[in-house]
Structure formats: structure tokens, C-alpha cells
Amino acid sequence: MSIHNQAKKGDIAKTVLLPGDPLRAKFIADNFLEDTVCYNEVRGMLGYTGYYNGQQVSVQGTGMGMPSMSIYATELIEEYDCEQLIRIGSCGSIQPEVQLRDIILAQGACTDNGMNQLRFGGLQFAPLADFDLLHRAYTIARGKDVNLHVGNVLSSDFFYNDEHIGDPFAVWQKFNVLAVEMETAALYTIAAKYKKRALSILTVSDHIPEGKSTTSEQRQTTFTQMMDIALKLV
Ligand SMILES: O=P(O)(O)O[C@H]1O[C@H](CO)[C@@H](O)[C@H]1O
Ligand SMILES: O=c1cc[nH]c(=O)[nH]1
User: Fold this and answer.
1) pLDDT per residue over 38-54, tens digit each?
2) What is the tens place of the pLDDT at every residue in 6-63?
3) What is the spatial distance between Cα 50 and Cα 14, in angstroms, rounded to a whole number?
4) Average pLDDT, the chain
């Protein structure tokens, strides 16, 4: 057991898929996995272990934002010896060529979050995906009917921005950051600390400058493609 997870040692697989939404974890467990066991209900942050094509895999909700991701990623590594952490999340595009339902493999993650400022004493750390996971995910996704992008994302502490700031994404847009979400920089930093492998696979649920969003039906289909890519990495 850890503070936020009631699983016993050995209950969680070496590879863990990490959706922000715990009900996305349940969806994967119900629709993709066999012989599934729910190992965690603490705080409603559901976690399951099952089998995909005969390979053991877990899926654990992480909640929203970098403190929450940091708690789950740290406990999965420190208490449960997990080796591969694969986020499957939604994001908002800030580039014209990155459209609704496209899939992004986050090669790196910028952040406006303060944790790495404290951790690195004001120096700049570059949170990066594991190259092997990224390369394999790229190969798998290229074999599918998806619009795929690989690049930088922004992990932001803000879902709602304050009007007095002006356009909070202008500088990131200019420097070719593809999309905004809220967890990847923390995941990549924690994975680096413990020399573990991490990757974020993101589906574009919204286009922020164009004010567009996906329907719930579109989310369901496209999120399924992202889940399929992640599960083939196990
Ligand atoms: O769909 P998930 O994985 O939760 O990811 C995105 O959605 C949430 C905001 O609605 C944030 O957690 C953001 O990163
Ligand atoms: O615009 C969006 C969409 C999904 N997730 C975010 O953090 N922002």
C-alpha cells in the first residue's frame, strides 16, 4: 500500500497506462483488458490490472494537474517498481495544422508550473519522452489511419486563464509548441529522476484559437485509437 493507492506490491504491472480521468481507466479495463482486477479505489482514482494480448498491463487514473500526476507517478515507481509509464490524455491544439482528433506524441514538454523551478534551483530542465517508447509509438501510429504529430507540448497549471494576461499561448505558438495539457512535464521529470521510461500520447479534443471542440462521440472513437497505440507498447 502507498498513501494514495491500496494495491499490494505485485498487484500493478511493469507498464501502466495513465489517463487523467479515472473513468477512462475503467473504460480501458472494461473494453480492452481480460482477467481484470480493480486494485485501487482510494479517492475514486481507479486502477486496474489485466491482460492485453496475453501481456500484463495496468491502467491508473492520475487526476488533473502536475501535483496529482507527480503523486501517482512517484508512488507507482517507488512503491510498485513500475518501469514504463504511458500517459493517454486529451489536449488543446494551438497550431493550425494540428486539428481536432489528431494524435500527438509529446517529444518534450514545456511548463509554466513552478515545481521544476524549485527542484532545479531556477535552472532549466528539459522534460523528454523516452526515445524507445516514442519511436515504437511512432511506428505503430504510422500504420494507422490517424493524423499524427510529434513535438513539443505545454503542460500548464492553467485550464482557465486570466483575461489581464492577454493571449497566454502566443509565445508558445510562436515557438512551435503543438498543444496544451496539464501533466506531461511532471511525468517526464519524475521518470527521469528514477531512470524509468515515459511517454505521453495525446488526442486533440479542442482547438483553442479556432474555438473548436470534439463531440463526445468523436472523443470516444479517437480516444480508442490512442488507447490502442498505448496498449501495443506493453
Ligand atoms: O484528458 P486528461 O488526461 O485528463 O488531460 C487533460 O484534460 C484535463 C483538463 O480537462 C487535464 O488533465 C488535461 O491534461
Ligand atoms: O484545451 C484543453 C483541452 C484539453 N486539456 C487541456 O488541458 N486543455
Assistant:
1) 999 999 999 999 999 99
2) 999 999 999 999 999 999 999 999 999 999 999 999 999 999 999 999 999 999 999 9
3) 12
4) 96
CB atoms within 10 A of CB 138: 14
Is 61 near ligand 1, meaning CB less than 6 Å away?
A: no
Binding pocket residue ranges, ligand 2, CB within 6 Å: 90-92, 159, 180-182, 205-206, 208
Q: What angle do CA 73, 50, 68 make, to 5 degrees?
A: 20
Cα–Cα distances (Å) from 200 to 37, 40, 101, 128, 229, in that order, read 24, 22, 16, 10, 11
Q: Which ligand is nearest to the CA of 226?
A: 1
Q: Which residue has the cell 496498449?
A: 231
ipTM (interface pTM): 0.97
At a CB cut-off of 8 Å and minimum separation 6, what does 137 contact? 105, 199, 201, 229, 230, 233
**200 C-alpha to center of ligand 2: Å?**
14
CA 93 to centroid of ligand 2, rounded, Å: 8
Q: How crowded is residue 173: how many other Cβ atoms within 10 Å of its Cβ?
A: 16
Nearest alpha carbon to residue 205 among 108, 124, 88:
88
Exposure class string for 91-107: b at 16+ Cβ within 10 A, else e = bbbbbeebebbbbbbbb
Q: How confident is the model at residue 64 (pLDDT cuts 50, 70, 90)?
A: very high
For the 15-231 domain, the top CATH level (class) is alpha beta
- CA separation for the pair 200, 118 (Å, rounded): 23
Query: By three-state DSSP, how is residue 234 classified?
Result: coil
Catalytic residues: 206
